[in-house]
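Inputs:
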Amino acid sequence: MKASKAVRWAASLPMLLLLILTTTGCTEKFVVLDPKGPIAEQQRDLIIISTVLTSIVIVPVLILTAIIIWRYRDRKGRKAKYTPGWEHSTKLEVIWWGIPIVIITILAIITVKGTYALEPSKPLVSDKKPMTIQVTSLDWKWLFQYPEQGIATVNYVKFPEDVPIRFEITADSPMNSFWIPQLGGQMYAMSGMAMTLYLQADEQGAYWGSGANFTGKDFTKMYFDVHAAPQDEFEQWVSEVKASSPVLTLDGYKRLSEPAASDIRTFSAFPEGLFEMTVTKYASSHNHGLSWEDIQKVQIEE
Amino acid sequence: MWEKVKSFASDFFVTGDPLIYGADVSIVLAAISIVFVMTYFKKWGWLWREWLTSVDHKKIGIMYILASFLMLFRGGVDALLMRAQLVVPEMEFLTPDHYNQIFTTHGVIMILFMAMPFMFGLFNVIVPLQIGARDVAFPFLNALSFWLFFSGAMLFNLSFVIGGSPDAGWLAYPPYSGLMHNPGPGQDFYIWGIQISGIGSLMTGINFIVTILKMRAPGMKLMKMPMFPWSVLSSCIAIIFSFPILTATLALLFLDRYAGAHFFTLDGGGNPMMYINLIWMWGHPEVYIIVLPAFGIFSEIVSTFAKKKLFGYKSMVYAMMIISILSFLVWAHHFFTMGSGADVNAFFALTTMLIAIPTGAKVFNWLFTMFRGKITFETPMLWTIGFIPCFVTGGMTGVLLSVAPADFQFHNSYFLVAHFHHVIIGGVVFGYFAGLYYWWPKLFGFKLHERIGKWAFWLWNIGFYLCFMPQYALGLMGMTRRVATYGWDKGWWEMNLVSTIGAGLMGIAFVVQVWQIVYSVKHLRKDRTGDPWNGRTLEWSIPSPAPLYNFATLPQVTAQDEWWEEKLLRDNGQSSSVPPALEPIHMPKNSGIPFVMSMFWFAAGFGFVFQWLWLIIAGLVGVAVCMLVHSFNYDNDYYISVDEIKRTEAAIREVPN
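Outputs:
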């Protein structure tokens, strides 16, 4: 009866793990599994559904492996059958080509549906008007511009809860990836283009985001704070920033984009069209034949 | 003058890091002691005649495996340094720059300079023996492949002490790997180290396809071939279609850096996304290239140690061929988050999931080979049994990653890091270890010590799960790959601590393996049977180590498990007819050209790295001269006389105890 004991033991391991996790309050740390917005929630659900589906095959296979290895080990006085020439069975082969096909088909349907439903540039369903925040990955900091409010921040982003946020993401640096795990999956930040990512926070709270793609020396310092606040608190914060923060000038942007890490900063205004300039200065149609330095000179002088 | 020398040297050599100074000293000491020992024992001539100029597939295979063990050591030290840096938050053991270099070299070395040569080594030592051939189809080309790999690997490793290591990740995504962000020579070492060894890989792919298609023993139809050569064939097909993409991609990146082109730059209309597509069109087949031969190895071992025919031979063959083809249709799953749109993502998610089907069928076939078998647990079989649950669960997380919309949360996180280490260590490394333990007696004529081998196996396995299971959790906690350090606030430190302990155990396991080899050599117990595991395929029908010409007379094949069937006949007293008469054997002559030509490639590569035009020209001219000399050399084969074959065979069978 040793085999069944081993099986029981194996089954109790994940339970034990779960128990430890829940009792020590560790679950909060699993930010991906602790969503605070509709996108992250659907992604968490997909993760759980696909884990369960694949486990339907994997767990029996693991148990079968243990049983076969135990039962057919070579030892004296063994009663199990030994058929050295048995090498083919169409019935069995159909079964084990069939099982993965069935599971993969189900998973494929779910995946395709999810891929279209969660296409990051698709606006979220909401009765509130989406708010746009323009995100620029710099070496090694994130610049957030609020075109509707006219303010800008560095390594800190605040927005109202329950409002769809349309992030427009670009880079004035090597390719990075913009990720707020509790609100939803990431999107690459690439120069010469503006990627769109819709996210929303269902409840107010402080979250964090990161630059998920390696960009060099201080890439590790590209975490940023995310704050979802009630609408009036957000508006109050905007007016505070407008009243008390310095202005981001073109020269200031140039200094900001020099390679270095940065603390949280706020700006009461930014140059008109700065984000568009950042995107287009690398776009091929605008600068063919000109070097990167030339382009910068031209646009800064304007 | 002195000032000039000093300023040159401070740029040329890597300075400022005590770790590297320590390495400098040990490299110089090791080099001096090797030169001293070789000179003292007057071994230089032997080294040149027996190894550097050899075109014998068995010796080339051994050199590949030796080199890959050295690289496993280097890549492993890199891994341990990284884990040491991450053991607790806010650690200041490595600077970020140094950390970036180390994760880059760890990745490149483990895939291209450890897994690839280990695999080629096993191809070389076993494929000709299993298909009943006397060498590969192109022995000279085979030697050239090895030496190109070797000089590429040395060029890459040189960056550690000269010029500085590359630091743009193992696939060197532009624009970060472009001149604007990465001016140093490290990235050029990366390009040329991989380019030079890549030519070798491509040629090996061609060589083994031809060997398998044209050199099989009489009677061995393709469908009677053992499973390992089948896996080699499927892997080599992927090599010949994917390595040209790598070569072209790196050539374009080199033109960007050297000639001011704008293929992948930010400015001038360059498109870095193009590079990312191209590099994964090679990169994804590459991971199947290294894992398919492991599947072949497991098939051989499972059947040998269950003492039972391999279950579902045909479906195993089809499964491998399907995987080989599908591996070219999945590359975009490495960047679902690059905004390709739902159509593209859905397509690549589906093709990725499809691969799970043939892979799953293979697992069932292995299981049912053991079903109603008689399983014994020698070390090769232990690694195989360790592999099955490991690869099954690693494959499962792979399927999770292929769910495109969920991948937006996994991408670039430690979940991904855990997944690919899970399948590459659990599949590839366990597979090659299994193969090495299995075929070691065929290579050297004695078994490795079983007890120490079991210690190594358990240490590796426990270390593996301790190291990588916590990394899945870290991924779900939002830890992203390649971060050089992290804060106390994220709650990541417990899992990282466990992970580092696991890495340490794997390091100890490697030392135990080296000890196992040393111990087994010291307490040598020679195997006289040539068939220590009661094997099933042709390589076990000849003495160990195999004589230069492998088979005194070429075998006539009638069955899939030819040697097993032959043994059954002999047991029944129906031994096959008298062996046919000996005939002179046609063999290739040794040549120094592959070695010399590869040294010229090394020189040219070094010239490209430092943009020394004179060295580039000298190196390439040397390469051209070598090609010319070889083209006009018609004296490249000879015959082993019947007398000598008789003498060799008699000597093998009558060694005194």
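Remarks. The CA atoms of residues 127 and 532 of chain B lie 19 Å apart. Residues 1-42 of chain B form one domain.
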